[in-house]
Amino acid sequence: MADLKLPRLPDRTPAKITINVMPDLIEALNDYAEAYEAAYGRRESVPDLIPFMLSGFLASDRSFSRARKK
Hints:
- The chain is mainly alpha-helical.
- It has helices spanning 23-40, 46-60, 62-69.
- It has 3 helices and no strands.
- The chain is extended.
- It starts with 22 loop residues before the first helix and ends with a helix.
- The mean pLDDT is 92.
- Pfam families: DUF2274 (PF10038).
- This is Transposase.
């Protein structure tokens, strides 16, 4: 088989997790979903937004990125 430019794709099987949040956090998450809808004209549910929010948070944490590389 010839060498392909595209590497083998990573595992993309979603993992389901369940969390409990305090009332003020769910209120803030619902407010964020409303702000998202106002900005983009499309309603997304809080559970659909959370994975992207977490990914963005982890990507922006430089200390975590450095520690993870070790």
